[in-house]
Amino acid sequence: MDLFDTLKARGFVADCTDEDAVRKLFATEQTTIYIGFDPTADSLHAGSLVQLMALAHMQRAGHRVIALVGGGTAMVGDPSGKTELREMLTNEKLELNKAGISAQIRRFIDLDGEKGIMVDNASWLLGLNYIQFLRDVGRHFSVNRMLAAESYKIRLEKGLSFIEFNYQILQAYDFLELFRRHDCRVQMGGSDQWGNIVAGLDLVRRLGPGEVYGLTSPLVMTASGEKMGKTAAGAVWLDTARLSAFEYFQYWRNITDADVGRFLRLFTFLPIPEIEALEALEGAGINQAKEKLAYEATLIVHGQDAAEQALAGARAAFAGGGAKTDIPTLEASLPCPILDLLVDSGLCKSKGDARRQIKGGAIKLGTDKAKVTDMNLVIGPEHLDDEGSVALWRGKKNTVRVVAV
Questions:
Q1: Of 323, 356, 384, which residue is a domain's last?
Q2: Are residues 82 and 200 in the same domain?
Q3: Do 234 and 208 belong together in one domain?
Q4: Which of 190, 217, 244 is the C-terminal boundary of a domain?
Q5: Whole domain around residue 296: which residue ranges?
């Protein structure tokens, strides 16, 4: 199976500007490919994993990859997928964000300067002369065509700011710069970036000039129709300061049966035959496949030690005891209403959600998992074990250890 077919088999291909040409390019030449990541937060989340894994597969196949950290474009804000203007970030916040996501990108690709490099588009965007840029680059863009792009059409209904309107031009210019500086021939991204990618191809062909290509990956949705990487408590962050390795493990361990095979293909490096064998498991055996997915996904992001500790912690939690230090912990001053603890722990989004979960019988307490029926229950010292803690459960798999302080 060649690289393009491998990407297809794993679910990384949505649209391609010229599939035959890209297939041939990947098979016959060492090619330079780039994907951009705007530092809008100090951590990436699971929604970025498809692009990170795509870069990793390209590099493992012998191609040169560029991870672009958008220190310049993040100052403008990509309107794609957003219903309102993104927060305007300070320079100090941008620097912190760039440092955070740069460290995470390094876990997926080798940035040795040859097989992979990292660049910041602030190095060429911030020094542009605006009038000269409009004359040299802006004149090649049709406003009518830009407004036809899906990302702009959606925003026009609620209001599109002029600063956001410039985003497509800046991303297109990134491709031109990378083509000129590094002979970058392929831009990859999520399917919501199709309009921006095509604009970049057109600009390179006009001003490069050169033959370049675009390849997008699908925006991954769960089998239930929800955006992948979202939970009741929020985004599935890659930074342990935002989400522990155990909680990250649990996210993958708790996915629905229908998503297992697809996510094994996208978010692990397991060979396809091994994935097919895990897909074939039925009944209780599907839990083996989920555990393998959770372990491999955690291994890539957090390393072997964290993955093994999370695995041990998960098995202990399901067994009702064991390695408590591997289970997420909430320090709380007791006595405290259970509704507050459920919200503070992230097990429930709000007190209203907590009440609904209690009413539905989903909330349990302690190692014996006693069902909570009293919405006014106050957790006090009498609920604690010998180590001064008590386990709170939402369903069978989500647990937090409450420690009295």
A1: 323
A2: yes
A3: no
A4: 217
A5: 230-323
Rounded CA-CA distance 261/279 in Å is 5
Is there a single domain that holds both residue 164 and residue 279? no
Q: What is the DSSP letter of 13?
A: -
What is the pTM (predicted TM-score) of this model? 0.80
**Cα–Cα–Cα angle for 41, 43, 44, nearest 5°?**
100
Rounded Cα–Cα distance for residues 29 and 231 (Å): 41
Provide the number of structural domains found in the chain.
Answer: 3
When mean pLDDT is compared over 65-69, 85-89, 363-367, 399-403, the highest value belongs to 65-69
pLDDT digit string, tens, across residues 73-124: 999 888 776 656 677 888 999 999 999 999 999 999 999 999 999 999 999 9
Q: Is 172 exposed, middle or buried (0-12, 13-18, 19+ CB in 10 A)?
A: buried
Rounded alpha-carbon distances, angstroms, from residue 40 to 43, 116, 236:
8, 23, 15
Q: SS3 of 71, please? A: coil
Return d(Cα 152, Cα 380) in angstroms, integer.
Answer: 53
Angstrom distance (rounded) from CA 395 to CA 307: 23
Measured distance CA(199)–CA(175) in Å, rounded: 9
The one-letter code for the residue type at 309 is Q
Question: pLDDT for 339-357, tens place per residue?
Answer: 999 988 878 878 988 999 9
Shared domain check, 68 and 201: yes
Q: Same domain for 237 and 189?
A: no
